[in-house]
């Protein structure tokens, strides 16, 4: 049997995924990481147990505790291992024990089940399997399932016990002198078992993988028939001269090879010998007719392991053993025994009778080889010495790839002298030495000649070229990155290039840089979890031509030649990434050669909330949002949509959630219900604020909610990614839109009343909004009921006249002179106008006026004539002088062209008039919605009582002054009285504003 110990390269190439955890000989931490995965809390305990087993210790006692076990080893040390509460929920129940009783039945926690765990002799002609033990119990769909012996069928059969396994976080199975410890991971799944010896003479045997294929090969030895060409004949002759044992093989004899079974045995001091008994057992309890013998430490080079990746370090090689496999031959069926495409457990019994078993992992097949031997070239990774028949860890191929060869019998030669001298090549059997490997190349070719022998006696003589790849050694690598997600949109998306400099790798030759430029590059990005652990698969992957870009030094122009290649990286889309720490694994490969491999950390952050969110400036004072809001139907309450006060970027989602941080702090502190924080300002994701803490009840002023700053948090989704959220914290203060502390938004003009008359103060009081979108606009403090009243208006048809009744006069009873420039407009002829003397004057009359200037006579229009024309177009409308209703376009044109209308506009304000009554109808007008009430009160009621008829002022702001005869002259100052009035404006938010002003009463 051709054996060899595992080198680090070969060991890394083997693929393993075992159902049971190895109990290591030497290396522990890596084993825990790979096989215990998420059970981080148990890492130290399991490592300690493994170390003790590797030193030959065993389990002296195991005691169930809540959700796990306490394990006492033979040296007296104890370790506690517990299951991890996962999404399926572990309720804290004690660890479950499965053992096999002396009666051969399964026992759960000491309670016997009806399942037979040990096989008994068959009945009714069925094959016997006396003493075989069943596979371990397992959990299926939340219930315990066991394997029970069926004597009728002669097999172990699955059986649902009906016993619930819900809440089980840990269990162990003890059988065949071994305790198999099962611990739930964070997902509540039992995916690995830890094997521990249960007696002083027990040991642990493990299959190195979930599936181990063991091939047993046979062929008819027919060298004469297979080697018909001269080249093949010469090759066969050369092989027989080198390997003299071939002469003893008779023509047409059956030749056998292979059938080498690997096994991992612990502790390391266990030495397998021919005094041990070895057999295979199928899950149904039957034993195939396959002989196992000749244990040899080490592992063969011609066995294969599938389904997984080897997770042991090469230093554990001393734990591996290999057994010869010899299936029995069935003369009648003309076939060799196999495991019939099923997996078998390896059963080992030592000299003391201790029996151990592996998992059901071995699949033994028997192949009849009829094809001739063939040879192909592979690719390997550079090392000073390379075993060309060993599988390379990186390329997963050997340098020389044989098919159908016989026990590795081959003659390997270097065939090219220039090739030999160029690289300093030499061979020792299959081991290649390279003395002069160039430092600046990624690969070389080694030219070989191979003469190989096949299992059927065929021979081949073939030249092959083996590629030897070399990782370029560079001093530099990827630098760590800190990336803030972009706030600038590029081509419709928030993207940014994350680039690294080629110079950071510190290539020393143009050859290296060119190889790097041309290499296939892969950048794998892993989002680390909260423990800093990397997931099994990359979160994002960028490769050359598919996301990974190569630029010139400007970082935007694609590089097409190595000498212009300066930057490389990928475009990071903010919609795909979330803030966190990412591990970046970068590899540049030329064929199978790694040009560069480097790792770095990239920390991705959101832009700062204060940089992307702003409070609306018009609504903000000293960094605090000034909220006015809408007065709700609930008394003393304000509601407000906070998004109206925040300027958010378009990459912040429209869905935003608000919380009252002060209320949250109050909840966490379990504050008293009388504290301000007891009220949550956020209801249905809107600001809902009572003016006080008691939902409208009377509250001390210092506990009012209004005019108190509150801390609010808005949580947004960024970039359309539901997993990426950001908090924006800000302060808000709720104020009345009409309230000022000093009443400065209310203006009171001088209010003067006459003795004996009613005084309406409201006509001289006005107000504006203090805050909000209406700030500075008129605020109606007082409403009116509307209705019709008689109003004195100017009667333009009744101008004041002189005593003779000829001329119209002004307020001083003086006739109104006609401006010289207007005389022609009034009707004076041009001849008369040109004959005017410097002192000639004319005055506006009531009627038309005949005048003479020199020899020229003219008639000047009187006011009546002017008004006759004006009245065609103008009238009083609800007490206001203006256009008549429904003037046509022609009438408006005539009005605008009328000379009389122009004279009216020029002289109407120069005349004095009588008044007339006009009916004025007013519509009801309430006070502004924000005003609840306005009240008036004398500042000094006793003083006011001397001058007014009532000390109570109505809400209409009216009062009546006493007649002068009712007032003592001594109470007047300079014949007048001055009284102060306190006006209180109460708004819908419950805020009260007081304005004090003075009213003067005189004759």
Walk me through this protein's architecture.
- This protein is mostly beta strands and about 1000 residues long.
- About 10% of the residues lie in helices and about 40% in strands.
- An eight-stranded mixed beta sheet has the order 38-45-44-40-41-42-43-39, with helices on one face. The protein has a seven-stranded mixed beta sheet with strand order 2-14-13-12-6-7-8. Strands 47-48-56-55-52 form a five-stranded mixed beta sheet.
- The model is unreliable at about 1-40, about 85-90, about 120-130 and about 300-315 (pLDDT under 50).
In short:
By secondary structure, the chain is mainly beta. Helices cover 11% and strands 40% of the residues. It starts with a strand and ends with a strand.
């Amino acid at each position: 049997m051709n054996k060899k110990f595992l080198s680090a390269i070969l060991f890394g190439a083997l693929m393993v995924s075992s159902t049971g955890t190895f109990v290591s000989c030497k290396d522990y931490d890596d084993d825990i990481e790979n096989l215990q995965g998420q059970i981080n809390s148990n890492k130290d305990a399991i490592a300690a147990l493994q170390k003790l087993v590797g030193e030959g210790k065993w389990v002296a006692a195991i005691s169930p505790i809540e959700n796990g076990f306490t394990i006492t080893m033979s040296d007296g040390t104890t370790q506690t291992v517990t299951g991890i509460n996962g999404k399926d929920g572990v309720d804290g129940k004690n660890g479950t024990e499965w053992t096999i009783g002396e009666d051969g039945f399964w026992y759960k926690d000491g309670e016997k089940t009806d399942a037979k765990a040990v096989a008994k002799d068959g009945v009714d002609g069925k094959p016997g399997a006396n003493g075989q033990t069943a596979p371990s119990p397992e959990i299926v769909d939340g219930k315990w399932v066991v394997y029970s012996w069926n004597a009728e069928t002669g097999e172990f059969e699955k059986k649902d016990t009906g016993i619930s396994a819900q809440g089980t976080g840990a269990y162990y199975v003890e059988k065949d002198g071994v305790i198999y410890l099962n611990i739930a991971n964070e997902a509540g799944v039992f995916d690995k078992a830890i094997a521990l010896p249960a007696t002083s003479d027990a040991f642990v045997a493990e299959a190195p993988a979930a599936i181990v294929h063991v091939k047993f090969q046979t062929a008819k030895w027919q060298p004469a028939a297979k080697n018909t060409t001269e080249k093949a004949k010469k090759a066969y002759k050369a092989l027989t001269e080198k390997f003299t044992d071939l002469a003893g093989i008779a023509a047409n004899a059956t030749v056998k090879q292979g059938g080498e079974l690997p096994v991992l045995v612990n502790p390391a001091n266990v030495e397998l010998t021919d005094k041990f008994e070895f057999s295979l057992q199928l899950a149904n309890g039957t034993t195939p007719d396959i002989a196992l013998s000749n244990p040899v430490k080490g592992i063969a080079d011609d066995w294969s392991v599938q389904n997984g990746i080897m997770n042991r370090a090469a230093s554990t090689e001393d734990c591996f053993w290999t057994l010869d496999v010899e299936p029995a031959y069935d003369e009648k069926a003309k076939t060799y025994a196999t495991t019939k495409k099923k997996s078998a457990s390896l059963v080992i019994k030592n000299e003391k009778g201790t029996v151990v078993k592996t998992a059901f992992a071995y699949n033994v097949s028997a192949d009849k080889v009829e094809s001739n031997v063939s040879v192909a070239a592979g690719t390997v990774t550079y090392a000073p010495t390379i075993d060309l028949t060993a599988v390379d860890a990186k390329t997963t191929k050997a340098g020389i790839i044989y098919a159908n060869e016989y026990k590795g019998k081959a003659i390997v030669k270097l065939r090219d002298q220039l090739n030999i001298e160029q690289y300093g090549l030499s061979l020792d059997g299959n081991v290649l030495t390279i003395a002069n490997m160039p430092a600046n190349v990624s690969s070389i070719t080694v030219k070989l000649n191979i003469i190989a022998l096949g299992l059927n006696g065929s021979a081949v003589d073939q030249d092959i070229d083996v590629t030897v790849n070399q990782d370029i050694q560079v001093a530099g690598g990827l630098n760590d990155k800190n990336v803030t997600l972009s706030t600038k949109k590029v081509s419709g998306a928030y993207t940014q290039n994350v680039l690294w400099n080629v110079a950071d790798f510190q290539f020393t030759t143009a050859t290296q840089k060119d190889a790097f430029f041309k290499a296939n590059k892969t950048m794998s990005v892993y989002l680390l979890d909260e423990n800093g652990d990397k997931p099994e698969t990359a979160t994002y992957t960028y490769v050359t031509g598919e996301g990974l870009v190569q630029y010139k030094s400007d970082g935007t122009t694609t590089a097409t030649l190595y000498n212009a290649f300066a930057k490389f990286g990928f475009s990071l889309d903010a919609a795909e990434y979330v803030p966190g720490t990412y591990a970046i694994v970068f590899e540049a490969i030329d064929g199978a050669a790694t040009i560069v491999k480097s790792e770095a950390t990239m920390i991705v952050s959101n832009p700062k909330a204060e940089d992307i969110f702003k409070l609306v400036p018009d609504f903000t004072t000293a960094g605090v949002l000034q909220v006015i809001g809408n007065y709700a139907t609930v008394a003393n309450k304000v509601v407000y949509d906070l998004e109206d006060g925040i300027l958010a970027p378009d990459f912040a989602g429209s869905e935003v959630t608000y919380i009252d941080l002060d209320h949250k702090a109050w909840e966490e502190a379990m504050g008293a219900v009388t504290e301000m924080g007891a009220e949550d300002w956020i209801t249905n994701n809107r600001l809902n604020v009572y003016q006080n803490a008691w939902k409208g009840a009377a509250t001390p002023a210092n506990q009012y909610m209004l005019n108190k700053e509150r801390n609010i948090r808005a949580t947004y989704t960024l970039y359309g990614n539901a997993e990426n959220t950001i908090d924006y914290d800000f302060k808000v203060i709720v104020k009345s839109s009409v309230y000022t502390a000093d009443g400065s938004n209310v203006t009171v003009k001088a209010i003067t009343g006459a003795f004996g008359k009613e005084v309406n103060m409201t006509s001289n009081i006005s107000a504006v909004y203090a805050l909000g979108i209406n700030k500075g606009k008129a605020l109606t403090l007082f409403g009116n009921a509307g209705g019709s009243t008689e109003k004195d208006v100017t009667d333009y048809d009744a101008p004041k006249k002189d005593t003779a009744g000829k001329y119209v006069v002004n307020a001083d009873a003086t006739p109104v002179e006609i401006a010289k420039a207007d005389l022609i407009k009034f009707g004076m002829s041009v001849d008369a106008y040109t004959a005017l003397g410097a002192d000639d004057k004319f005055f506006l009359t009531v009627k038309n006026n005949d005048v003479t200037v020199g020899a020229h006579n003219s008639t000047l229009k009187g006011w009546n004539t002017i008004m006759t024309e004006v009245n065609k177009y103008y009238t009083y409308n609800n007490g206001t002088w203006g256009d008549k209703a429904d003037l046509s376009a022609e009438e408006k044109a005539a009005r605008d062209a009328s000379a009389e209308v122009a004279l009216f506009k020029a002289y109407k304000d120069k005349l004095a008039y009588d008044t007339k009554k006009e009916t004025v109808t007013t519509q009801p007008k309430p006070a502004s919605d924000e005003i609840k009430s306005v009240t008036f009160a004398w500042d000094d009621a006793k003083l006011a009582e001397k001058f007014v008829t009532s000390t109570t002022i109505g809400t209409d702001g009216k009062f009546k002054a006493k007649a002068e005869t009712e007032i003592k002259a001594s109470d007047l100052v300079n014949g007048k009285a001055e009284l102060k009035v306190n006006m209180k404006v109460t708004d819908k938010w419950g805020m009260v504003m007081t304005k004090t002003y003075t009213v003067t009463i005189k004759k």
